[in-house]
Amino acid sequence: MTTAAAPDTATNTAATANAAPATAPAAPTAPTAVNGRVIALAHYAARALLEGVLDRHGATFHQSVTLRVVAVAGGSIARDALVRDVTGSLKAEESVVHGVIGELTSAGLLSQDPAEASRLHLTAAGRELYERTTAEAAEITARMYAGIPAEDLAVAGRVLALVTERANAEQARP
């Protein structure tokens, strides 16, 4: 039995380095089955766009997620509930989330309730940052989803919610 020779890595690397710069990937010509890679590629492509918005405002992805939880909660939330929500969303360690809360507090974007130390409030600056970055991201999102039929978006939403639910269940398994 014969085996094929391994590709010459040095030659391939040199050829790649000398190749013309890559352009945007071509649009898919056939429907793509949903799998982990397709979901991950969509996530990271969209996240890169969001991080571009956040970078312009001096914020991080983790900070954005944390501010969103407080904003959606009406601008005030118990610290434990905030940590639980963000930890669950980001699959991050509690210590990381506590660090992000510290960053946001130090930056004057969140404040501790003087009457109830266990609650955090969105400050005016925090609300402004959240609203500005959310509006900019919404413009990008609108362009990304433009022309996709509502029925397709509804199906994709149901499928992704089910995948998330199952992944969370797998993660909770002993």
DSSP strand count? 3
- The sequence of SSEs as H and E is HHHEHHEEHH
* Largest sheet strand order: 1-3-2
Largest sheet descriptor: 3 strands, antiparallel
Topology diagram in text:
Layout: H1 9-18, H2 36-56, H3 61-72, E1 76-78, H4 79-90, H5 94-106, E2 110-112, E3 119-122, H6 124-145, H7 150-172
Antiparallel strand pairs: 1-3, 2-3
Helix pairs in contact: 2-6, 3-4, 3-5, 3-6, 4-5
Features:
174 residues; mainly alpha; 3 strands; 6% strand
Notes on the protein architecture:
- The structure is a single chain.
- With 174 residues, the protein is mainly alpha-helical.
- The chain is built from seven helices and three strands.
- It has helices at 9-18, 36-56, 61-72, 79-90, 94-106, 124-145, 150-172, and strands spanning 76-78, 110-112, 119-122.
- It has a three-stranded antiparallel sheet.
- The longest helix is centred in the last third of the chain and has 23 residues, at 150-172.
- The chain is globular, with a radius of gyration of 21 Å.
- Mean pLDDT is 87; it is low at 1-21.
Quick synopsis:
By secondary structure, the protein is mainly alpha-helical. The chain has helices at residues 9-18, 36-56, 61-72, 79-90, 94-106, 124-145, 150-172, and strands spanning 76-78, 110-112, 119-122. Helices cover 65% and strands 6% of the residues.
